[in-house]
Amino acid sequence: MTMNALSMPISGLAALALALGAGPAMAAPTVALPSPAAPVLEPVSAGLVTYDQPVIALTHAAVIDGTGAPARVDQTLVVAAGRIAALGDAAQIAVPAGALVLDMTGKTLLPGFVMVHEHLFYPSTREYLGFPLSMSLLYLAGGETTIRTAGSVNGYADINLAREIAAGTRLGPDIDVTAPYLEGRGAFTLTMPQLANPAEVTRMVDYWAGQGATSFKAYMHLTRAQLAAAIAAAHRHGMKITGHLCAVTYAEAADLGIDNLEHGFAAATDFDPDKKPDACPADQAAETALGDLAVDAPAARALIARLVARHVALTSTLPVFEAFDPQHGDAGESALAPLTADYRAYYLRRRTRLYAQPAAGLHEHRLLLATMRLEKAFADAGGLLLAGSDPTGIGGVVPGFSAKRQFALLLEAGFTVTAAVHIMTQNGARFLGREAEVGTLAAGKRADIVVIAGDLTAQPQAIANMPLVFKRGVGVATAAVFERLKGVLGLW
Ligand SMILES: [Zn+2]
Questions:
Q1: Which residue range(s) make up the domain with 305?
Q2: What global pTM score does this model have?
Q3: Which of 479, 484, 458 lies closest to 71, judged by CA?
Q4: d(CA 160, ligand 1 centre) in Å
Q5: Ligand 1: distance of its center to the CA of 117 in Å?
Q6: I need a surface site. Which of 18, 154, 195, 382 has the fewest CB within 10 A?
Q7: How does pLDDT run across 180-201, given as a tens digit for each residue?
Q8: How far apart are CA 127 and CA 131, in angstroms?
Q9: Quick check: is 352 in a domain?
Q10: Structural domain contains residue 211
Q11: Spacing, Cα 337 to ligand 1 middle (Å)
């Protein structure tokens, strides 16, 4: 479907929202009439679109384009039919006649985030429950215009949601849907399979590839033989496979041909002095060893070199580790606003219990700092570092806010503002094979744009102030999304 077809009916709903007084702080646009032939947004998405004029000029903005290049000041970006038609110095870019002009003085434009460790489920008392409708909208309101889920607990819901978003009947990020987890014997939740052998792994990969999943994730208890089967089957379908491993080390997985590893180095069991083949460590020895590991230790350097040589991408998921760390992890009141009262209380209970144990808290703190150091070293060595926020763990990692935390934590790990943006945009797009379309701001690319109120280079904390997100040239006022989704994560 063309962007024109998508944009027309939204205009009518946006007009309705504006008439009802739900409009954004920015100047109200003139709106086009709806086309009777085009798809109509379903109710949850309806009324959340603020700007969808055929031509929109964002003038006098600072631009961080996602390539890692320094910010450029006083830029004009022209959006036409869902794409970036022009981008350059404001003095040199002509604003097309009839364009809606939004003055972006004092604001910074970034590419829409491409985050590769997201989920459409959230941790509850015992199990992972899926809330794909609310979570997908929250991701969009947090600047994420493309996501890869990194494991699903309800494959059909995720696949069907991705199709509705692609068809234009629902707002949300484009979704690269990872099939239900490929897990072996010993899964810690009821929501995962316990695959017994390589043949069962192959059968599951083939099934979900046929159902429409577009990537795969190997989980903690898979053995080397099972992982080899999973990699072979995924690659036979032309798909990539990542892993949150445990029984298999990073070095073993790299040698088997895995494409990506999750959670930085925090899930690496390579450094456990008592590691047994095909078995998860019985205690926290691997984590403790990791917490003690210096980036220039021979074992660390060797593993980083091996991953880089084998082109294994690494996903940083600092927000989920931050939540465990008493010295970091206060999610803050506004971040908890989308949660139901029950889910919020559950998270606060878990946090209080964990933070009351100083030794456990220190262990988590050391683990967070170690993975930060090693991720920076991996990127410095030429590795492809990706970003995700992973809304699991003890909770408190809430879509809509978690990408902003990932940005702040990458800065704490030592990356510059432009490098952190690059990791969260172009690197993800490159890994997902979507680089020609998204991940950078340039003429011809899709108009997936994050608007930051403030000069992000001078004041990185401005990341928290994100009034507007465009996807395919359609602008969504984030405040309206957060208002609508107050207290619903845990219901739908
Ligand atoms: Zn995860």
A1: 113-432
A2: 0.92
A3: 458
A4: 20
A5: 6
A6: 382
A7: 999 999 988 888 999 999 999 9
A8: 13
A9: yes
A10: yes
A11: 22
